[in-house]
Amino acid sequence: MAAFGPETGAVGWDWRVNGACREDGIDWDVFFTPSGRESATACRRREADAKSLCATCPVIRQCREHAETFGEKHGIWGGLTVDELAALSSRIRSA
Ligand code: SF4
């Protein structure tokens, strides 16, 4: 989510200023697959680091809702990968 934010003028982004990932010193790279090759082990570690931060985030619900609403295709949002978000949305729709 590093490429977005209230400063871009996007509507409905107010919640983001309270995200745990907005705190100083946070490495936003953990939220996205790096360009180039990433081993499965490195991917698991990176995603676990991102999810650990999300687990402490006061706006985790809003972040997840945003990703679902806008169909985010990359990254960790609301403590879930986009594949996990898609699977969750699918289960909810079929329930
Ligand atoms: S849930 Fe995770 S990605 Fe979303 S704002 Fe919070 S820390 Fe950032």
Automatic annotation (TrEMBL):
GO biological process terms, alphabetically, are:
cell redox homeostasis; negative regulation of DNA-templated transcription
Cofactor binding note from Swiss-Prot or TrEMBL: Binds 1 [4Fe-4S] cluster per subunit. Following nitrosylation of the [4Fe-4S] cluster binds 1 [4Fe-8(NO)] cluster per subunit.
Q: Which GO terms describe its molecular function?
A: 4 iron, 4 sulfur cluster binding; dinitrosyl-iron complex binding; DNA binding; metal ion binding; protein-disulfide reductase [NAD(P)H] activity
The cross-references to Pfam families, in alphabetical order and at most eight, read: Whib
The Swiss-Prot or TrEMBL record lists the needed cofactor(s) as:
[4Fe-4S] cluster
Enumerate the PROSITE patterns for this protein: 4FE4S_WBL
Identify the InterPro entries for this entry: 4FE4S_WBL, Whib
In this chain, [4Fe-4S] cluster is annotated as bound at C21, C54, C57, C63
- Give me the Gene Ontology terms describing cellular component: cytoplasm
Q: How is it modified after translation?
A: The Fe-S cluster can be nitrosylated by nitric oxide (NO). Upon Fe-S cluster removal intramolecular disulfide bonds are formed.
Q: In which domain of life is the source organism classified?
A: Bacteria
Which compartment or compartments is the protein found in?
Cytoplasm
- Predominant cellular place of this UniProt entry's protein: cytoplasm
Record family assignment: Belongs to the WhiB family.
Q: Which purpose does this protein serve, as stated in its record?
A: Acts as a transcriptional regulator. Probably redox-responsive. The apo- but not holo-form probably binds DNA.
Q: Which HAMAP family match?
A: WhiB
By what name is this protein known? Answer: Transcriptional regulator WhiB
Q: Which organism is this entry from?
A: Williamsia limnetica
Source lineage: Bacteria, Bacillati, Actinomycetota, Actinomycetes, Mycobacteriales
